Amino acid sequence: MTFATKVKSEISHNKGLIGRNKKAFSYGMMLCGKSFSQQSISMTTENKYIAKLYAKLIFQQQDGLITALPLGLRRIDALRTLTTEALAVLMPFKAQELNHTNGIYYGQNAVSGNMIRIDRAQLLNGHSFRLGVSGSGKSMSAKEELVEIALRTRDDILVLDPESEFGQLVKALGGEVRFSSRLSDLIIKDGALHAVRVSSAEGEYELGCEALILACGHSARDTYEWLCALGLPMQQKPFAIGARIEHLQRDIDRAQYGPSAGHPALPPAEYKLNAPTPDGRGVYTFCMCPGGQVINASSEPGGVNVNGMSRHARDGRNANAAVLVGVRPEDFGGDHPLAGMYLQRRIEQAAFRCAGGGFRAPCQRVGDFLSGRASVTLGGVEPTYLPGVTPGDLRAFLPDFITDNLRLALPRLGQRLKGFDHPDALLTGPETRSSAPVRILRNPRRQSAFAGLYPLGEGAGYAGGIVSAAVDGLCAGMDID
User: Fold this and answer.
1) pLDDT tens-place string over residues 180-195
2) Which partner for 314 in 101, 212, 291, 430 could form a disulfide, CB atoms 3.0-4.6 Å apart?
3) What is the pLDDT of residue 287?
4) Which residues, in sequence order, are CB contacts of 85 under 8 Å at separation 6+?
5) How far is CA 101 from CA 123, 201, 350, in A?
């Protein structure tokens, strides 16, 4: 039995690895003793306790020494398989305890088991991230901390709540809620921010403001337009446009896992692909959603735009990902700072008309797309987009340079991932909002030409996702006096 076969056999019989987020490791321990005399080293190695636990290397001393030295060479083939839990017992961990006298309870130290109590004011950096999959308790833990701070301190608390999760709690704690409120204008005096104008259900009002973090999304088109009208310097920015490609998840699992596909210890398979194209734009997959669905991400009447998502269980029948082509400022069709946004809008409106309205999306089989014909019916992959799709031709609404690059790239991507260019795979489009089509100019301290206005994150053109946008915000927090 080979070593690889032995490991696979042990894994298959170890139920603790399945469903408990554990891994298997090949482990070997080599002890190297030293002494100034043969007698002393013999006494050590013949100790009855050591003799029971470890085997002396007879006629293998040189190989043992080479293995023990930090050379990266293993000359002694004596390994056993340990799970994560068993291996952790042998590691020399040092637990870092956080137990401030007036701290808030955050949970237990995973290493020592002691409680964690933190007073953010005593930390060198009081910022924190809450990272976790959907449904893991991120919002709940934030609410628990909010209650503790409100009841035990006199700190001011500001909650940015795009999902409307904290309103009732804030009211119960005596706070003020500003839901359904929209930033509609900036009051600029002598080149500096003086106040903001806010639109709400009760009407418009001004709010005094000398420092504003503008963290809009990459689809905040109304905000882009009135900022441009105010004269805030902006510039065109490259982005990408394409469509969502949809496959059966079981086919992706087979392509990635081979004969092991379907094993209960394996999660739904993912992929990340790219292919160069002759014009240098390239084609790449983005935001792959295993076991997910294609969703409607339109933000304007008369236009359709798609995106993708996975639920926590990732147990949907299909996998999807954006397959995108690079778009350059020279493709925008004009020199206006918002010309890229207007290109997005034209494509979305054309797709809306092609699908027959009602926010249905155009859809085409990959086989038909590569053959240059419109789809009339669909095949073995059932589309997940709601409110529904209309079979058609992506060439009816996407520019030629995008469809030409997709046609070149899909077979190449199929060579890298078997079945990626399967004739029954679906292309649903358009996906135009890969990133912001504009960049709001700012100085090294993240301040715009209007003193006191700090454009941040993806919508400002300085990030490409959740984490990079969050880092931009953290850096800005340290820059703003």
Assistant:
1) 888 999 999 999 999 9
2) 291
3) 93
4) 16, 22
5) 13, 45, 62
Which one has a higher pLDDT value, 103 or 48?
A: 103
DSSP 259-297: GGTT-TTSPPP----EE--TTS--EEEEEEETT-EEEE-
Q: Is 265 exposed, middle or buried (0-12, 13-18, 19+ CB in 10 A)?
A: middle
Q: Give CA–CA dist 196/179, Å, rounded.
A: 16
Distance separating alpha carbons of residues 191 and 193, to the nearest angstrom? 7
Mean pLDDT of 453-479: 90
**Type of residue at 382:** E
155: nearest Cα among 213, 216, 102, 210: 102
**Residues in CB range of 476: below 8 A, 6 or more apart:** 213, 446, 454, 456
Q: What is the mean pLDDT of the segment spanning 119-129?
A: 86
Provide the pLDDT for residue 97.
84
The pLDDT value recorded for residue 370 is: 98
Mean pLDDT (the chain) is 89
Q: Assign residue 223 a region: left if phi > 0, alpha if psi is -120 to 50, beta otherwise?
A: alpha
Task: Find the Cα–Cα–Cα–Cα dihedral 339, 340, 344, 347, rounded to 10°.
Answer: 70
Q: How many helices (H) and strands (E) does the chain have?
A: 13, 20
Question: Residue 464: which of 240, 278, 178, 312 has the closest Cα?
Answer: 240
pLDDT of residue 258: 95
DSSP labels for 82-121? EEHHHHHHTS-------B-TTPEEEEE-TTT--EEEE-GG
pLDDT at 417: 97
Q: Which amino acid is at 121?
A: A
CA–CA gap between residue 419 and residue 247 (Å, rounded) = 9
185 three-state secondary structure: strand
The residue written with tokens 């020279």 in the block is 330
Mean pLDDT of all residues in 290-310: 97
Instruction: Compute the distance between CA of residue 286 and CA of residue 271 in angstroms, rounded to an integer.
Output: 9
Given a contact cutoff of 8 angstroms between Cβ atoms, the answer to whether 327 and 342 are in contact is no
Strand partners, 440: 234
- Would you state the pLDDT for residue 56? 75
Residue 158: count other Cβ atoms within 10 Å of its Cβ.
Answer: 5
